[in-house]
Amino acid sequence: MSSHSMSRRALLGWIGKTAGAGAMYQAMSSLGFAAESTKPGTLKLSGTKKGASVLVLGAGVAGMTAAYELRKAGYKVKILEFNGRAGGRCWTLRGGDTYTELGGATQQCQFAEGNYINPGPWRVPYHHHHVMSYINEFNVPIEPFIQVNYNAYVHSTKAFNGKPQRYREVQADYQGYAAELLSKVINQNALDAELSGEDREKLFESLRHWGALDKSSAYKKSYETSLRRGFKVPPGGGLSPKPEPSELFDQSALLQSELWKYIVNGQDIEFQSSIFQPVGGMDSIAKAFEKRVGDLIEYNARVTSVDQSDSGVTVKYDLQGSAKEAQADWCVCTIPLSILSQIPVTASNAMKTAIRSVPYAASVKVGLEFKRRFWEQDDAIYGGVSYTNLPITNISYPSTKFCDKGKGVLLGGYVWGPNAFEFTSLPPEERVKKAVQYGKQIHPQYEQEFDNGIAVGWHRVPWTQGCYGVWTEEKREEHYENLCQVDGRLVLAGEHTSNLPAWQEGAIASARDAIERLHAKALTTAA
């Protein structure tokens, strides 16, 4: 093959970079490259030694998964939990709840009955099989979470005079223009050496279909393009005005706007439909676990040291001012590394170095309650996410209680990095005000309709001091295996010991893997 020729995979990569994930997947389907993920296997926990005991540190979903499965396998289990509730980051705030962050600032949630915000996880993708299996096993009621809403907005302060644009308009025009350009490449015989004639025909036809091109392979204002992006005058009945196609964005203005970078978000595998949420709040998952292992949990237990010997594990902890101690044969520790790195732990130097080597992301979530659901009533946005280059990054509309006539809560900001530190340098009430000021650039109704809000900065949350563990390829190569190994009688679990950081799926999958390996070692270790 010449230096100028292009393989099928290289072609797909080029399409992905220039036309987006949707075009690449369309081409993948035509050329036969699409694939699916696998489901988790059955745990191998048989043959537990009589009287064997395990101490689990942390009653988040990883810790409760470990405790639930280990008790079923015959282990004597005890859980130590920092908070007065179970769930960890699987957490929901409702009206009447009180939360105090590091520094002493206390917020009381004032949401109306039935409204809530999930400061931590808020979505369960269909392919998160471990989470879905427990949802099914525990009969947790779930409902669709709407990630992509084509009638939501994409917004940039640097484009279209700061006016938000409909997601569907940007996506339709970007796909159309990209498809037109790619079809020209095919028509100019530029791919003759790379693809067979049949492949070129299939790719060309898929681009025409994907981009709503006309018979001349051009993307132009038409009835067909308006079926994608919406009409200037929509079709009606009787003697109502005839439908009128909408005007397309100028191609250069659209490219320069960079709004196209938001339309691939819903095509990332974590955000592809179907996505679910537990009815009434994410903590329904935590409560389902707690119902089954709550009798094993000692709450308000702040771990102060973890020591191990050849014969067992001893954990010291503070229980509301009283020094306590717990012992067991084995220990599963799910404490976030941001906290564990501050606690004396008896472990190998490799594990201790790994514990200290993973930083945690800074993030802020802001829940805003409004007097009415104006996003539905005024803007016809029912669920989904609007994206912006403002520090709030997005607005997520509730996927429940549609058309309710009362107050409504939306996620008014999901702030990251330096902007998160800036937000949490302010008192909580000022963070809420800041989210309202930013949000009104997308929804002018914000100021008039705002009622109350609450803002959680994860690097100020006492039990995590960060949102999730941030790995780099280099850090994983150097430390990941050392962090995950059974170290003496200790093994770690949680989203930080997974390849799905920040997701409950990673936490639960890591816990199941950790206890299976711990059990295998327990079977071969003298009592």
Explain what the structure shows:
33% of the residues lie in helices and 20% in strands. The longest helix has 21 residues. It has a five-stranded parallel β-sheet with strand order 14-2-1-18-24, covered by helices on one side. Strands 10-9-20-21 form a four-stranded mixed β-sheet. A three-stranded antiparallel β-sheet has the order 7-13-8. It has 17 helices and 24 strands. It is of the alpha+beta class and 527 residues long. Helix 1 runs antiparallel to helix 2, helix 3 packs parallel to helix 9 and helix 11 packs across helix 16.
Please outline the helices and strands:
Elements: H1 8-19, H2 21-31, E1 53-57, H3 61-72, E2 76-80, E3 93-94, E4 98-100, E5 106-108, E6 116-117, E7 124-125, H4 129-137, E8 142-144, E9 153-155, E10 165-166, H5 167-187, H6 197-211, H7 223-229, E11 231-233, E12 244-245, H8 251-257, E13 275-278, H9 283-293, E14 297-298, E15 301-308, E16 313-319, E17 322-328, E18 330-333, H10 337-340, H11 349-355, E19 363-370, H12 374-377, E20 384-388, E21 394-397, E22 408-416, H13 417-424, H14 428-439, H15 446-449, E23 450-457, H16 473-484, E24 490-492, H17 504-523
Parallel strand pairs: 1-2, 1-18, 2-14, 9-20, 18-24
Antiparallel strand pairs: 3-6, 4-5, 7-13, 8-13, 9-10, 11-12, 15-16, 16-17, 19-22, 19-23, 20-21
Short account of what is shown:
By secondary structure, the protein is α+β, with helices and mostly antiparallel strands. Helix content is 33%, strand content 20%.
Alpha carbon gap, first and last residue: 64 Å
What is the gyration radius calculated from CA atoms? 26 Å
* Total count of helical runs of at least 4 residues: 17
Structural class: alpha+beta
Helix percent band: 25-40%
